[in-house]
Design brief:
Radius of gyration: 16 Å
Oligomer: single chain
Largest sheet: none
Strand content: under 5%
Structural class: mainly alpha
């Protein structure tokens, strides 16, 4: 494989969406807890309070990364802009 081909593949791989620590933790929650998380974020309540509760319940993500997930700006969403993700949903 040439350098050019390798760089093309590396860029494509880098742009692929992959779950962050917060997303992986969310996958472990019950449907009731996940609904509570989604409702809290959707209501625009303080993320710092949510993060402290999440840490007490096993979330391994640092607060900065946790905030990025809540704002749809983490690796889960790849290179896509948040507005394009919302319109696709």
């Amino acid at each position: 494989m040439s350098l050019a081909e390798d760089l093309i593949h590396a860029e494509q791989d880098d742009n692929a969406a992959r779950p962050c620590k917060t997303a992986l933790w969310l996958q472990t929650l019950s449907s009731e807890d996940r609904a509570a998380f989604d409702a809290y974020v959707g209501a625009g309540k303080p993320i710092a309070i949510l993060h402290r509760a999440a840490i007490r319940n096993g979330c391994p993500a640092a607060e900065t990364r946790f905030r990025l997930h809540c704002r749809h700006r983490c690796s889960c969403y790849g290179a896509a802009a948040p507005s394009s993700l919302e319109s696709a949903a």
